[in-house]
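Sample intake sheet
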Amino acid sequence: MRVFLTGATGFIGSRIVPELLAAGHQVIGLTRSDPGTDWLLAAGAEVHRGSLEDPAGLAAGAADADAVIHTAFDHDFSNFVANCEKDARVIAALGAVLKGSDRPLLITSGTAMGSLPGGGLAREDALDLNHPNPRMLSERTGQDLLDGGVNVSVMRLPQVHDPVRQGLISPYIDIARDKGVVAYVGEGANRWPAAHVLDVAKLYVSAVERGAPGARYHAVAEEGVSARAIAEVVAAGLNLPLVSLKPDETAAHFGWFAMFASLDMPASSAWTRKVLDWQPGGPDLLTDLRAMDYSLVG
């Protein structure tokens, strides 16, 4: 297949590129920069220049593709709502050029979108289109496209990691360095799911090759790692004190990150593993956090 990949030079996308090529697919990679162009060409991919600010330009990149994988996202979480709205516009534009065909569009969301009202593990079959998290805009737009006949599926991500980056934990580390302490809320019992970036990249390829319209996949290797365990490893790496915050201290300490700091977001991938025969084998989150060179962080 000719696969149009947004975010092709990003943290996850740059790992998907070689996986697609190794599986015999052609890759059309989105980039907005000259270095990104050089990297894609050297990797053996075609190049489409564009950005998330130009949905029509992205749609043009998808027009001649057999499949689309959308991983690009503006990770400035201080503007999270606006960036989720931007993602919805991009998804709508990509879907519009695929309508009337069976060409798959694999979009990206977060595992929290599969959370259940009573708590417990988030699941692939759960979807609350009125979920207050603005990331739901991506899935709501995808559902609208699915209802309109577009072959849409969703990859929901946990904290995706290697020894350099770890999803939301990367800005958490920056905040700890700035504040001079590594903090968690209460007992730090809230949990975040996680998966190694290479395992996630392989799953994207399986999902675009074998996925079904309307399916939601969870790229989860670890169902939940406690905030306290994460904080302990980060504190050791940064050589900073470990502190527990009261809930009413969270906003002042974390700023924009406060909305995430105490969330309990465990998630299952049992169904995903079964239907896509996915067997993650990369290092776990705490192993990668211990392997990080903290002198290079920040």
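Comment: The longest strand covers residues 104-110. The mean pLDDT is 95.
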